[in-house]
UniProtKB/TrEMBL annotation:
This is Cytochrome c1, heme protein, mitochondrial. Its cofactor is heme c. Component of the ubiquinol-cytochrome c oxidoreductase (cytochrome b-c1 complex, complex III, CIII), a multisubunit enzyme composed of 11 subunits. The complex is composed of 3 respiratory subunits cytochrome b, cytochrome c1 and Rieske protein UQCRFS1, 2 core protein subunits UQCRC1/QCR1 and UQCRC2/QCR2, and 6 low-molecular weight protein subunits UQCRH/QCR6, UQCRB/QCR7, UQCRQ/QCR8, UQCR10/QCR9, UQCR11/QCR10 and subunit 9, the cleavage product of Rieske protein UQCRFS1. One of its GO terms (biological process) is mitochondrial electron transport, ubiquinol to cytochrome c. It comes from Aceria tosichella. Binds 1 heme c group covalently per subunit. Electron carrier protein. The oxidized form of the cytochrome c heme group can accept an electron from the heme group of the cytochrome c1 subunit of cytochrome reductase. Cytochrome c then transfers this electron to the cytochrome oxidase complex, the final protein carrier in the mitochondrial electron-transport chain.
Length: 276
């Protein structure tokens, strides 16, 4: 049994813990409400279901968007051409894509560096030789690497889609500096990247109408795959694990009932000793 002082201490601790949690929640909500950023709406993606996989036709179009639009400013140094095989391209197509770039390699036998056509083991090329060159070409802003951008931003592919399609005129009283553009989904609203997605800014190889929303959707899905190339395999393994655990659970329950049936059904009878 608990003493009166112990009950008092536990009650006080519970009240303080609940009050602290309520205060933290209230402060966190108020801080988020004060952010000068519009939170992206949750989109319906083909891969967002529990057992859904990527739309690989969309991923291929997304690669085309990255190659023709995004690659002019953004790098993807952690994605290699060989990872496209079986996802967006065949092996021959991936080799052809890699061969279009020139990669600095070496040194050769004379100690000199040389240029060679790309191989599928090479990563996507960077548009700038270093960070200083990237900042100089973008008014001091450094274009982030896009390899894991959906994992690095709250909202993931929803954020990328909203950012690409969210450019608009600044509200009254908001003044943009030279080289800045207004986007309510970007922190503070002022972003150095100009709007790059428009209707028919490119043509898809499969003939899909290149509307701005379609372009943004496809490249957002592609960036999601770049950040999580194991996405489909992880879900397949998860489904297999669930099936195996279901069977194992059924077998375990049957064995438990069988092993304990003799114990649960036995009867204990008291037979008093006979007095001598």
């Amino acid at each position: 049994t608990w003493t009166k002082s112990q009950k008092t201490i536990c009650t006080t601790a519970g009240i303080l813990t609940g009050g602290a949690a309520a205060l933290w929640y209230a402060l966190d909500r108020s801080v988020q409400a004060a952010d000068l950023v519009l939170h992206p709406p949750e989109m319906s993606w083909p891969h967002s279901g529990l057992l859904s996989s990527f739309d690989h036709a969309s991923l291929r179009r997304g690669y085309e968007v990255y190659k023709q639009v995004c690659a002019a400013c953004h790098s993807m140094q952690y994605v290699r051409y060989r990872e496209l095989i079986g996802v967006t391209h065949t092996e021959e197509e991936a080799k052809a894509e890699a061969a279009e770039i020139m990669v600095e390699d070496g040194p050769d036998d004379t100690g000199s560096m040389f240029k060679r056509p790309g191989k599928i083991a090479d990563s996507f090329p960077s548009p700038y030789p270093n960070e200083n060159a990237a900042r100089a070409a973008n008014n001091g802003a450094y274009p982030p690497d896009l390899s894991y951008i959906t994992s690095a931003r709250h909202g993931g592919e929803d954020y990328v889609f909203s950012l690409l399609t969210g450019y608009c005129d600044p509200p009254a009283g908001v003044v943009m500096q030279e080289g800045q553009h207004y986007n309510p989904y970007f922190m503070g609203g002022a972003i150095g990247m100009a709007q790059a997605i428009y209707n028919e800014v490119l043509e898809f190889s499969d003939g899909t109408p290149p509307s701005a929303s379609q372009i943004a959707k496809d490249v957002s899905a592609f960036l999601k795959w770049c950040a999580e190339p194991e996405h489909d395999e992880r879900k397949r393994m998860g489904l297999k694990a669930l099936l195996m655990l279901t069977v194992a659970t059924a077998i375990s329950l049957y064995w438990k009932r069988h092993a304990w049936s003799s114990v649960k059904t036995q009867k204990i009878m008291y037979v008093p000793r006979k007095k001598l």
